[in-house]
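Researcher: First entry.
Model:
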Amino acid sequence: MLPKDITKKIRRTEITTSRLVTDMLSGDYESVFKGRGMEFDEVREYQPGDEIRTIDWNVTARMGRPFIKKYIEERQLTVMLLLDLSGSSYFGTSKMLKRELAAEVCAILAFAAVHSKDRVGLLIFTDKIEKFIPPGKGLQHVSRIIREALYFKPEGRGTDLAGALRFLDSVISRRAVTFVISDFLTKDFKKPLAIANKKHDCVAITITDPRESELSDAGLVELTDAETGSTVLVDTSNYKLREKYAANAKRLSVERIKTFNAVNIDHIDVHTDKPYIAEFVKFFKARRRRI
C-alpha cells in the first residue's frame, strides 16, 4: 500500500493533467495522430479514378493488367512513452526536478491517448531497461503509468537510448506513436533514432533546467556529474567561465535540434521553470498545418 502523501501526489497529477487534456489538447491530439496509420487490406484491379501511386507494379506485371494496393485506416493507435530516468533526471533548480516534469508529460500523453481510445505503454530506461508496461487501455492503466513515472526507483545511472529503442523494436511489432522523453545528455543517438523513426512515428521531448543553460554567480561550487559521479570545483564568479558554459550549452542545444531535423523527427522542448502546455499546443498546431 502506498503512503498517503504519495497517493495524494499521484491523484493530484491525474486531476491536473486530465483537465489539461480535456480542455486544451484532446482535439489537437486526434487531429495530428488519429488516422495517420494505414494498414494493408487487399489488392484489386485498377478502376478509373484510383491514384496511380497505389498501383502494385509486381502484381500488375504478373497479371498483365493494372492492380492497386488497397489500405484501410487504423482505428486504434499504439502510443509508447520512452522515459529516461538516468541520473541527470534528478536535477532541478526551479519549480521541480526534471524527473517530475517528465512524469507530468507522461501523464498528459497517457490521458490524451486514453481519451482517444488508444492503447498506451511505458518503457523506463537508464543504461539498461528498467521497466516495461505493455500498451493497454483505461484509466486504471493510466494510473499505473503515472505511478511508475513518478516513483519508480531505477538501478542504473547512465543513459542508453540506443538500447531502449532496440528493446522497443523487439516488443512492439506494429507501428506506434513513440514519445522519447529525455534530456538527451548523451552521445550517438542520431542513428538509433533514425532507424526507430522508419518503423514508428517518433517525437522527441527534451526536458531541460535553466541552470543547464547558464550558471549563476554563486562563488566556488562543486559540480557533480549525476551519471558518472565525477566532481569538479568551479568558480562561478568568473564571468569568462560562465560565458563559456553558456556557449557550450547553446552549442549542444543547436546540435541536438539539427540531429532531430536530420532524421525527420518532431521535437518539443519543455523547461522546469516554464509552463509546458503552450509548447504542446504549438507543436500540435505546427504538425497539423504540415499534415
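Researcher: Second entry.
Model:
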Amino acid sequence: MVIRADKTIEKVVTSGLCTGCGTCVGMCPQQALTMVKNDSREIYIPELDMEKCDQCRICLEVCPGHSVDFKKLNLEIFGKRSEDALLGNYLNCYIGHATDYDIRYNSASGGLASALLIFALEQGMIDGALVTRMNRTNPLEPEPFIARTREEIISAAKSKYCPVAANIALKEILEQDGRFAVVGLPCHIQAIRKAETVSKKLKEKIALHIGIFCGHSDRFTETEFLLQRYGIKREEITQIHYRGDGWPGALTIHLKEGKKVIPFDSYIIFHGLCFFIPMRCTLCCDSIAELADITVMDAWLPEVEARDKVGSSIAVCRTQLGETLCHSAKSKGAIELEEISSSKVAQSQGMLEFSHGDLTVRFFLSRLFGHATPKYNRKLPSPRAINYPRALMVYFNMWLSSQRYLWKLIKPLAWVESRILRLTKS
C-alpha cells in the first residue's frame, strides 16, 4: 500500500506543526508510531513505520498540532463558548497549597496538583494518574508513566523545562482496567480532549484532567546550554530537578560526587526570554490549559512573592468535577484553599500576554516566512504596537540559541532584553 503523507501524522511533522505531545503514538491502533528525539530540532517527534500503517487517520484526528476547534470543544466540555478571552471557561479561582509540608516544599509551587492527585487516589476516585518524572536511567530526559501510589505521584512533582511527550502513556490507559487522571501541559490536554471525541473507551477511562500553565516548552538544548555554562558534564549527572526545595526553587543537579544548585533567577531568565523555545510553541494560543477540569499554576503575585518562600498554587476550577474535588480535598484537610478573583489570576501570569497579545503578530511573521500555522477556530486578538518588537525578539532569540557558536552572546543579551522589557512595562 502506498502511504499518503496527507493521511498520516507525517503531514504535521513536515509542516513543522508537531507539538511533540505523543498523542498520535498513544492512540495509534496499529502501533505504527514511536516518539524519537530529533537531533536537529532538539524536540520529540513521531516516526512512522510505513509497513504497519493502515492510514486510518486517527493520528491526524487526535493531533493538536495542526488544529484545535476551541469553539466546538468548549461547547462539548462546558456547554458554552469561552466567555473570558484570557482564562477561558471557569467556575471559580483559588490560591492554596498542600497541607503536607514535604509535598508543598518539594513541588514547583505549593504542591496543589500532587495533593489533589493523592487525595483522588486515596478516595478511590481514580486508580492511577498519567504524570511525568525525569527518567531514572537517563536523567536528562522525561519519563511519562501511570502513577498508582502516593510515592509515585510525588516522584513526578516539579516542573520539567524540556520537551515532554506525556501522551504516549495513553496507550497504557487504554490497555489497563480502572479510571485515571491525566496531568499535562495545554497541548497535552487539547490532544486528550480531541482523542476522547474519537475513542469512547478513552473518554470513559479518564476521570479527571489537570492542566499545568505553560508559557512555552524548551528544547533540550536549554539544559545543554546551562550545563555548558556551569561546566557540568552530562555523564556525571545522576538526577536533575528543575524546581523544588521551596519557592520559587532552584535547579538542582545531583552528580556522582556532590551536587550543583543553580538559583532560580540565574537560569529562568533564558526560559522567560524564549531563547530555546520550539517554533511550534510560538504559535500556541492556550497557555492556561482552558480545556482542563482544573488548571494549576505558580502564584506570581507581589503579595505572595513577598511572604511565601515555601510555595502556593493558583487553581482555576472549570468544571463541577474540578470544583467538587478541590472542596472535598479542603474539607478533609488535604489542601488549604481560598478564593481569589480572576483578575488576580491574570495578573499572576505575565506569559498570558505572550500567548494572546503577541500571537497575531507571530502568526503574521510565520506566514511571511512561508511557515504553516495551526487552525484554532477562534478570533485572534488585535495587536498593539508593543507586540511587534516583542514578537521579533522571540524569533531572534530562538534563532540565536539554535547557533551553538553564538551561545556566549546569550547571557549579555538576556540582561539587556530583560531591562528593556521592564522599561516597557513601567
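Model: Note on the second entry: The chain has a mean pLDDT of 95.
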